[in-house]
Amino acid sequence: MASEIKPPVIILVKPQLGENIGTAARAMYNGGLASMRLVAPRSGWPDPSALKPSAGAYDIIMDAKVFETTREAISDLHLVYATTARMRDMNKPTFTPKQAVEALHDAIAKDVRVGILFGPERTGLENDDLSLVNGLIHIPLNPDFTSLNLAQAVLIMAYEWFQTLNIEGNRKPLRSQPPLASKSELLDFFDQLESELDRTGFLRVLHKRPVMVRNIRNIFQRLSLTSQEVKTLRGVIGSFARPYLKD
Amino acid sequence: MASEIKPPVIILVKPQLGENIGTAARAMYNGGLASMRLVAPRSGWPDPSALKPSAGAYDIIMDAKVFETTREAISDLHLVYATTARMRDMNKPTFTPKQAVEALHDAIAKDVRVGILFGPERTGLENDDLSLVNGLIHIPLNPDFTSLNLAQAVLIMAYEWFQTLNIEGNRKPLRSQPPLASKSELLDFFDQLESELDRTGFLRVLHKRPVMVRNIRNIFQRLSLTSQEVKTLRGVIGSFARPYLKD
Hints:
By secondary structure, the first copy, chain A, is of the alpha/beta class. Chain A has helices at residues 18-30, 58-63, 70-73, 97-109, 127-130, 150-165, 167-171, 183-200, 209-221, 227-241, and strands at 9-13, 36-39, 65-67, 79-84, 94-95, 114-118, 135-138. The first copy, chain A, contains ten helices and seven strands.
């Protein structure tokens, strides 16, 4: 099922610099997005200056499709959202990036073709472009400094997109863990440690002994020590138990 | 309350290019982060080439503090996570960016000073740096293309940080906890422990020493030890360092 998910198309409207198209392609690839469309790129297309900044996302650059107008670029899509840096006074639903990718994800599962629109670097999207879309995406950022470059805005959306694919992965522990020490390994370690501490005199004040032992055990219980780590700690304590090599 | 939240310190370890320090500062500012530390930046500091790429985040650049070693850069912090591009075979808790910023946010509310470590552009953090931190942050991205530049990694963390500020109302009430040990308390404990282990001969096989030291440090980093617990452990080690009472 997940392998049949067709990710959102990324549409860059009037991008000014080939370099920014390249870094946007790289950000798309980071988040598992593959399909790029360009509306009237200022330096024409293909643009060799996009290649190096794409850092290897060549397929996205090579397969990018060019259109004259935003309208043509989105005509085969069903559901399109536009990113905006500032809040617009426009009666359209507005989403956070996370809300937007979740809505897109749900739509894709119903065979809806979806896209995300990004405006030119300095000016952002024009109201005519915004009138073509179903909703707006507002990236919540420091209100004193919302300036994001194109690739950064694409990266945030691509990152959030990838998290929707990964939801189940996020529920599981990320990595298989080495085997934990059994309680008997742990208790043998405590026995060894405490008998050494009796020997050194650390636990000599008898009425304090129970609480000190408990404090020390609590420290090591909190750790969820692995079997190997208990062996290491036993080696450490064992080394203290032997007469010093040199003093 | 929220206005007193002191955001995480961003620590860039051995950044290679001033330009990347500038773009990282910009990404920090986007997410409302203000405090930057640099460990041994390759081109020295101050570095005028950082200014223009910061796109106006001058205060962050001007206030950045420089350190010789990672250890010094984090010594006054209590809880530090490190970002890693690949999964490490290391028994440390591993978080998504969202899980990490939520944990940091909760810690800050209890007056814990926190930081996030980022490695050099090409090579990432070394295992010795990772042995100093409490947990790892793995940014889930397209497994075929996880290459993120420094500023992009900082942006993802800064963006997620800003989202935690926005959901203040949803947050759980906090349980009061005893104060965590600062990194300098912890590192002093490591120094004491390792010098004792040198003395007992436990670390005598020189080519194994670095990995053994790292394994031992990792055990205790996982704990988020309190200040009082570090004192207890220092007492334990101190008792081993004295001649035995009876043998």
